[in-house]
Amino acid sequence: MSTELPQHQVETSQQRHIRHQGMEASGVLDTVEKGFGGNPEAMQYFYDLFRDVYCEGIKPHPDKEMIGTMCVQIPDEIIHAAGGIPVRLCNGFYTDEEVGGDFMPAKSCSLVKASLGMLKSETNPYSDGIKSIINPTTCDQKKKAAGMMREMGYQVYDMELPPVKESEEGREYWRRSVRKFTHEVGKLTGKKVTRKNLKATIKQVGQAQLTYHRLNELRKNTPIPILGKDIFMVTNAYFFDDLTRWTAATEKLCTEIEARVAEGYNAAGRRSPRIVFTGSPPVFPNLKIPLMIEQADGVIVADETCSSNRLLNDMVSVDEWFMYDMVDAIADRYLKSCTCPIFTMNDDRIRRLIELVRTFKADGVIYQAFSGCSVYEMEQRSVAKAMEKEGIPMLYIETDYSPSGTGQLSTRIEAFMESLKVRGRQK
Amino acid sequence: MIYFAGIDIGSTAVKVVVIDEDRQIIGNKTVATGALVFKNAQTAFLALLNEIGLQRQHVSYLTTTGYGRKLFKDADETISEITANAVGAREAGKEFGTIRTIINIGGQDSKGISIDLLGNVTNFAMNDRCAAGTGRFLDMAARNLEIEVSDLGLFHFNAKSTPAAVNATCAVFAESEIIGLLGMGHEREEIVKGIHFSIAKRTIKLVKRVGIEDLIYFDGGPALNKGMVAALEDELGRRLVIPEFPQITTAFGAALIGLESHQYEQQEQQITEQTNAANAQSCQGSCSSCG
Predict the structure, then answer these.
(1) I want to staple B84 with a disulfide (CB 3.0 to 4.6 A). Which of A341, B65, B168, B240 is the partner?
(2) Is A6 among the domain residues?
(3) ipTM score here?
(4) Reduced to 3 states, what is the DSSP secondary structure of residue A389?
(5) Does residue A93 lie in a domain region?
(6) CB neighbours of B140 closer than 8 A, spacing ≥ 6?
(7) H-helix or E-strand containing A279?
(8) Is residue A401 part of a domain?
(9) Separation between Cα atoms, residue B285 and residue A225, nearest integer Å
(10) For position A2, what pLDDT does the model report?
């Protein structure tokens, strides 16, 4: 062994940060792309997109005015209509979570920590140079994050969301909030929202949702034609990809998966338990739990998360194409169908989960909660109770972005799969 | 005679069990896991075979379990320690009756497993990442008190007064708490007993999440510690089933799963052969496709 130590090259903290992000992203991409086999050909577009943006530093929207959004409740249609590009800033990097941990309480949500960490170190793979952020008043941590983002020098727009969604007051409150946003978003983008533009963008986003629906419906099939990890890649790409390009690539994927269904192709194992995924959202590169599920011979056939299904499931339904009608219809789509646990009552979520289990013929539910995300942690009780009543096995996992602890997590997930398989055999 | 082996590669110890076709244990071995996990597991396996006079090829099916299960590429099957524990406990506890609940305290985790009348896992709970209230915690406490882990039981029963209140279950915080208790003049016996009760309380809280039904089987290394057993029984107000070798239940379960998988594979093969033979007869070799 040589006794001489190599010269140590000192890199700046930002250089190191970007290098760590790249390592993290390419590690996960390698697993997604090479860890399973049988990838649909049309998925290559998405794998390449992530590799370009997350590892190669290629910007998806050079020289365009991007507007950062912090939650699924921010209406994309309105930002598009004002000539902006909405990019979702909810972030999944462990590297960023560590940075965010410096100024957040120890027990706080990984996603909020990571998003703040990314904004602080200005290392977002797809939204470098972003100035304006729309932050909805959803959970407490996101609300308070707004102040921290202002301190960092970002222009933050608080979009007020009510804590109750069943009441007429809540509905009216939110509608006013969306109307106000429609007026003011122009100040951020430099272009007013017009009736014609808004109608066009509702249709454009609607087309993307329609395509997602076409894809999602195919997952009801037995055998399952596509793995859940690929679906998460598709929906995660929607966070930042160009709308038209995304829709075209997803349509191509649909056609391929339809052909797979016609020939009875099975993307999973012979006895793979079918899983509905719910809870705190998996955001690339934090696909830890979804990947573990599918590595343990499970297959995610449906999800109830704001980074995937909830992002694209519900469409704006307009009666008459006048400005007021369109804006109110947009408001309703973002409030009524939302099953986020921040609301006082959230029976809709339980109903949706049961429906997903039935229609997608799932064997069990896996519920992920980021430790420190108190609303998802709290709602675990009522969901677990409801699932037990319905006779649906559920595994609750509390976790964060950290790569440690995977041994115990995979043991739990594997044991859950083994018990589902035994149940399946006894049926 | 054919044999089946189960290797449980745990965080603290590697346990190897070899059984025969009649589900009888032929031999078992427990060694420290150490840092060279795979090498130590492999050595232990081969050493056990040597002791009982078997060769590697006599083992028809090898199943691995435990946190290091995937390191053993030679295995025919890997299974999670939860399923393996349930299968092992059902068989090992048969002479006492039907096991419905398992309490397992391992080197770095503790678990509660509930099993139905057929012996299948219906629910389980496991501690999170932190090793609070596990075997690792007992190790640390013994070291701080300068006693052998194997003497913990003795110290427990020799306590003359009320057990000391040990509130912390985090190994790091508990260390300073133990030092504090010693500084206040508490006897080591009282502290040991206090620690056992603190672990018992925490473990039972965990197991309650899956529901506690008789019979309750307690295994893992700490089940060798009579003081720990007594504390758990007192906290529960019920008797526990303690197997003869509490450390090897999971390895035993893995071996049993291997036996079942092997039999299942044989059956499948038999069916295929029969079908092939039947097909060959019915077509009388008139076409060339089956040669």
Answers:
(1) B65
(2) no
(3) 0.75
(4) helix
(5) yes
(6) B171, B174, B175
(7) strand A274-279
(8) yes
(9) 38
(10) 61
